[in-house]
Structure formats: structure tokens, C-alpha cells
Amino acid sequence: MRRYIALITILVVVLTSCSAQTNKIKHYFSEASNNDEDFTSKVFDVLNNDKESECTIEFKTGIYNFYPEKAYEKYVKISNNDNGLRKFIFALEGRKNITINGNGATFIFHGSVIPFLVENSTNIKIENINIEYDFPFDLEGVVVANNQKEKTFDLKINKENKYKIKDDILYFSGYDWEIGMGENIVYNAITKSPEYFTSKYEHNFNKHFLKATDLGNNIVRFSNLDAAKVPPVGSIYSDKGPHGKNRNIVGFRVYKSKNLVLNNINVYHSGAMALIAEKTETISLNKFNVILKEGSTRVISATADATHFINCKGKISMDDCRFENMLDDATNVHGTYMICDEVIDASTVALKFGHFQQQGFDFAEKGDTLRFIDRTNLLPVGIGVVKSIDMINENYYKIAFEDKIPDFTKKNIAIENITWMPSLEVKNCSVKQNRARSLLISTSKPVLIENNYFASMMAGIRICGDANYWFESGPVSNVTIRGNTFENLGVGGHSPQAILQIDPIIGKEYRKDGYYHKNIVFENNKIRTFDPLVIYALSVDGLIIRNNTIIQTKKYPQIFNDLSPFDLQNCTNIKIEGNTYKGDNEASISLINCQKLEIDSKQEGFLENTIKNPNKYFYQN
């Protein structure tokens, strides 16, 4: 029977460890004798006192609980998540030189609280912590029966979930929150990965609600299913609630800060992104893991991305990190496009956001350089330096520029901030068992992706650019992807997913206007894949594909078996050499409207001549 050793009554021993000149303060926390004791106010008091001091906070190894009743509260606008009034436990605002060391402690958060806020702070180090919640922010259960004809399935709901049924709708809940069902996915109970062709089982919650009937013994029968197939018996059905309401509780909210270090941290669960950083300069992640707790019966860690970086700068580095079982990408590094709503005068424009989860984002400040792009072809049409910016409301900004801007009368314009773009280095990391992609990269600064393992449900590395849906900028100009292993990606079945997918959203009629991305190298990688598509590249000037080994596996039946392994469209300055393909048939290279080519015709396992076989599944084809 588990018992925790009763340690010194409650904590805080405060020790002034250095001279008054350095003004360093050290705080020690020891696990309480009462296992349910709330440490929220104790942490708040420590951080709220001596705000000008350097500070180290250490926890003795153990379990610490945090509740919402005494948590710090403020309204926050968190891009790509849901804005609102949020409660925070470790609130670092306007601080410098703070270290928080958990020494392997587990922090259990109760209810709708965000563990860490780092805002307007410099030189922050957080390390050696395990993050867990009392109740999961998704509903999970094992499918124990199904009926394809009646479109019903019975779900044995995980004992960690609290739920109730009201007016035929199931609501799941936690300490101080409740949400109905919405976005869903089916996982394989054995592999704890998304089920093969899982898109067939996804219910269209936008059209129909799932009718719930309680059968007793934690078993609920769901009917009114709007999906191609019912979930298989033995699979795990997960639901995280309706879109627009299920991204509230991030793990780390980082905003307008500098020099953040996160070491040896395990995020076992979060009710949105595990880490979201905006307008922050220089972030280092070492052994920052978003994973399931060992022995857990759950299949979902974070209910959105493991990490996400928006309009940061300096260098973002990730080394020896594990990102597993998230319901979105391992990372997404990008800028933001705002739509030019009105040209007010020769040097002033009014802007709005294209996506509702960007509203309120701190888009620019005085002195930033902004780039104007044509939304049809994503190509630049001018730049301007910000003189002033006024946020009238969360979705209406006015920006005045130092000089006159080009005449945009006949163009559909979006604007991006090119002052805030980071370099990126991802090394020795592992991504697997998650919905969506491994990495999304949209930054013009140097990018190195080396010696990683990727096994996500969708694309391996996606390089996009989009001024019409997610509104995530911008073009890359120096990307090296080498020495990585990619294994059986693209099992979701929604649409073809490439190992390297370069797919800026450009309408077919505008692709000849120019090239969006530049200088991408994909070399010395090992790809094990059941589906043919390896590289899809659109609108690239400078693409090198060399010395990669591609091995066809038989782990799953092929989904899109009529595609060419290499599919390049509207690209120039292409070099393809030294690659090896091992499969049932020779691999083909499809080229459409490509020029300045250097292609080795003697690559092992490849057809000698190129063909025309463009991917017909992507909408823009």
C-alpha cells in the first residue's frame, strides 16, 4: 500500500545564500505530510516576493498538488489556442534569472490550471519536473461491441474519466470543468498509435451529435454515427470535445521572453499544446518530453501539439526530446499572416486575422519590418517598417509605416512580420504514435533536422505556407534534413502524406508566377514506408535529394498506390542523385513544369526516365 513519508511540516525554508550585492535567494520546498495539500499559494508567495531578485526554487523529490482556488488569474490571448481568462500556478512575469528545479518531483494539477506562465522574462530555467493532471482532458474508452449496419458502438469508458449523459449527449468532466463530445480519433490498443486508416472511423461532429445511452458498468452505447465505418472492437476511441472549445489548458505559456531553458521535463498530459511560445527569443529544449506516464492506460498525452512556436527569433533548439501520443504535431515553427482589410492612406493599413485562433496575437511593434504578399501566389510585393501599431480590438489592427506603401488596389494582400523569424535545430529526437505530422517548418532562417526518428500518422516534415486557411507564414530559405529515420508514416488515410511534404497553398493558375521556398536539402535519410509517396515538392527554387535509402515495407496495405515516390511540381534548380529504392517495383520520379534539372539516371531501384504522374489527390491539382 502506497504511503508517502511525512516530511517536515510544510515547507518553505528560505535561505539567503549570497551577498546583498548579488541578491540571490534560494527557496526549498519539501513534500507535505498531507498528500492532498495545495502548494499553489506557497508557490505564488515565493514568486510574488522579492520580484527584483535572482531566485532558485528547489523541490525535494515527491508529489505536489496544485488547485485552482488560489491560483493567479489573468486574461490571455494565446495564438492557435483559445483566448480567455486563465489560471496559472508558476507565474513568471517580468522576471530575470529564475531557476525552478523539481529534482524529479511530480506536479499534479487539479482542474483548469495552466502549470507555467513565462511572460516578459529573461534567463529562465525550468528542469527535472513531471507534469500530470488529476483527470484527462479527453475521453477515452475501449470499443467492446459494434454494429456496422446500425452504425453503433459500445464503449467501455476509462476509469480515469468522469462523465454523465444529459439529453442523449455525453459530457466528460474534471475538477472544475465539463465539455461535450466533438473531435475524435481511434487508436490501436496494442501499439498505442492511431489505427490504420483511422479517418474511416472519425465521426463528423459538425453535422451530427453522437447519441449516448448508458448501459451500466461504465459502458455507453453510441449511435447516430456519421463515419464510413464503426470503430473496431478492441480499439480505443478518444474524444477531446468540440473544435474551438478544446484548446484551453496549455502546459507552458511563453510570451515575449528571452533565453528560456527547459531540461528533463516530462509532460504526461495537457488540455491543449504542451508548450506554446510566442514572440520569444532563444529557447532551448533538452529532454523535454511529451509522453504517456509509464504504466498509464491512456493513449493521449497532449490534446494538441507537443510544442508550437509563433513569430519567435534567435535560435530554437531541441535535443534528445521525445514527443509521443499527442493529438497534433511534435512542433510547428511559423510566422503569422494578417489580411489587409483596408488601405487607409498612403502609409497606413487596417488588418484582420484570417483564423479565429490567431485573434489578439501581438503581431508587430515599432521598428519591425513587415512583408506584403499576394495571397494568390504567396509572392512578395513590398516591405515596410512599422511606425506605429494600434490594436482596436482582437481582430482589427491599424498599422502606420515609416514610408509610403505600394499600391495594393488590385491585389488581395496579406502581411507577415519578417523581423521575428527563428533559426531551428532539431537533433536526436523521437516522434511517434501521434496524430498529425512530425514537424512543420515555416521560417526563413537556417534549419537543421538531424539524427531523429519519425513515425507520425501524417507527413514526416511538412513545409507549407498558407495565407488562406491557417494563415501561417513564411517561406524557407535554408533547410537541411539529414541522417533521420522515417518509419511507416501516413497511416491516417485522409489524403496522401509524404515523408517530406513541401506544399505551399498556391492555386494551380498562379504557380508559374515564381517560387515560394528555397534551398532545401534532403540527404542520407533512411525511409521505411508502406505507401509510395516519399517527397512531394511544390514551388521550390533549389532542392537537393541525395543518398537516401528507401525501403518498401508490408506493415500496412498501400492506401495511395498510384503515386510516384518523388513528385515535383513547378520547381527549379533540382538535383537528385545517389538514392536507393528497394521495393516490389522500380520507383518513378514525376516532374511537372520543372526546370534546371540534374538527375542521376542510374540510381538503384529507380526508373531511368522521369514521368508525368502528378498527385491527383491534393486539392490544388
TrEMBL record:
Cited Pfam families: Beta-barrel_GLAA-B_I, Beta-barrel_GLAA-B_II
Signal sequence, start to end: 1-20
Gene Ontology MF annotations: alpha-galactosidase activity
SUPFAM superfamilies (alphabetical): Pectin lyase-like (SSF51126)
Keywords: Glycosidase, Hydrolase, Repeat, Signal
Superkingdom to which the source organism belongs: Bacteria
Location of the GLAA-B beta-barrel domain: 140-236, 348-410
Stored SMART domains: PbH1 (SM00710)
Reactions accelerated catalytically: Hydrolysis of terminal, non-reducing alpha-D-galactose residues in alpha-D-galactosides, including galactose oligosaccharides, galactomannans and galactolipids; Hydrolysis of terminal, non-reducing branched (1->3)-alpha-D-galactosidic residues, producing free D-galactose
Name recorded for this polypeptide: Alpha-1,3-galactosidase A
Species: Yeosuana aromativorans
Gene coding for it: glaA
